[in-house]
């Protein structure tokens, strides 16, 4: 659905956000300021937290600036992501077969084309993920499928970038082991 939507919209930047998210009122202003301050930026992401049905915010996730190694274990960029349209088109959008980890896969592929200085972090909570306690998200309801997709995304990224590693699935993340002779023939 997102890829179909991308065919319909114009603009230099594409904001990827979940349909049930709550955004800060000044999110577009802060994103524009970041893009203007860093005209070579290819991808921009922000901090986030959770918000319940009463509007109570909790569990802030204050992220690091771009960290390629951290991205191998967990999608440290999710949820609010802004990516240049030309880069997104060059990458072919989101790939099928990575349900639950499609954003992780996209950011890893984008990082292969953009230098670390072109991936910018806005240190503000601009995204509020709706949290309804026991209600599960797709990622939680199908954790094994999401972990397998994340492990596949990480494994393919490592392969494309010439890094030899063994990737293992874990609940909610991929784990890897750098290889030398121990992974030979695998």
Structure description:
This protein is of the alpha+beta class and 186 residues long. The strands form two sheets. Strands 1, 2, 3, 4, 5 and 6 form a six-stranded mixed sheet that branches. It has a two-stranded antiparallel ribbon with strand order 7-8. It is globular.
List its salient traits:
186 residues, alpha+beta, two-stranded antiparallel ribbon, 7 helices, globular
Q: How many strands?
A: 8
> What is the count of DSSP helices, taking H or I runs of 4+ residues?
7
Radius of gyration: 17 Å
Q: Report mean pLDDT, rounded to a whole number.
A: 87
Judging from the principal axes of the Cα atoms, what is the shape? globular
- Percent helix, as a range, is 25-40%
Helix and strand element order: HEEHEEHEHHEHHEE
Q: Per DSSP, what share of the residues sits in E-state strands of 2 or more residues?
A: 25-35%
Termini, distance in Å?
36 Å
Main β-sheet, in a few words? 6 strands, mixed
User: In terms of per-residue confidence, which ranges show pLDDT below 50 for 5 or more consecutive residues?
Assistant: none
Structural class: alpha+beta
Write the layout of secondary structure elements.
Blueprint (H helix, E strand, L loop, with lengths): L1 H7 L4 E4 L5 E2 L3 H11 L5 E9 L5 E5 L6 H6 L7 E4 H7 L10 H12 L5 E12 L7 H4 L1 H18 L4 E6 L2 E6 L8
Parallel strand pairs: 3-6
Antiparallel strand pairs: 1-5, 2-6, 3-4, 3-5, 7-8
């Amino acid at each position: 659905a997102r890829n179909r939507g991308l065919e319909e919209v114009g603009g230099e930047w594409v904001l990827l956000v979940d349909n049930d998210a709550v955004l800060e009122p000044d999110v577009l202003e802060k994103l524009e300021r970041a893009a203007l301050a860093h005209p070579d930026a290819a991808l921009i992401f922000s901090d986030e937290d959770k918000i319940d049905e009463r509007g109570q915010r909790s569990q802030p996730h204050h992220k690091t600036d771009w960290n390629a190694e951290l991205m191998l274990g967990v999608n440290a960029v999710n949820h609010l992501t802004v990516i240049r349209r030309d880069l997104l088109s060059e990458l072919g959008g989101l790939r099928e077969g990575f349900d639950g980890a499609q954003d992780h896969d996209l950011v890893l592929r984008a990082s292969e084309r953009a230098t670390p200085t072109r991936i910018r972090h806005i240190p503000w909570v601009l995204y509020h993920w709706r949290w309804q306690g026991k209600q599960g998200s797709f990622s939680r309801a199908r954790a094994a499928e999401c972990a397998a997709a994340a492990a596949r995304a990480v494994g393919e990224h490592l392969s494309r970038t010439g890094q030899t590693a063994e990737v293992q699935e874990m609940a909610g993340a991929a784990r890897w082991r750098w290889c030398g002779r121990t992974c030979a023939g695998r």
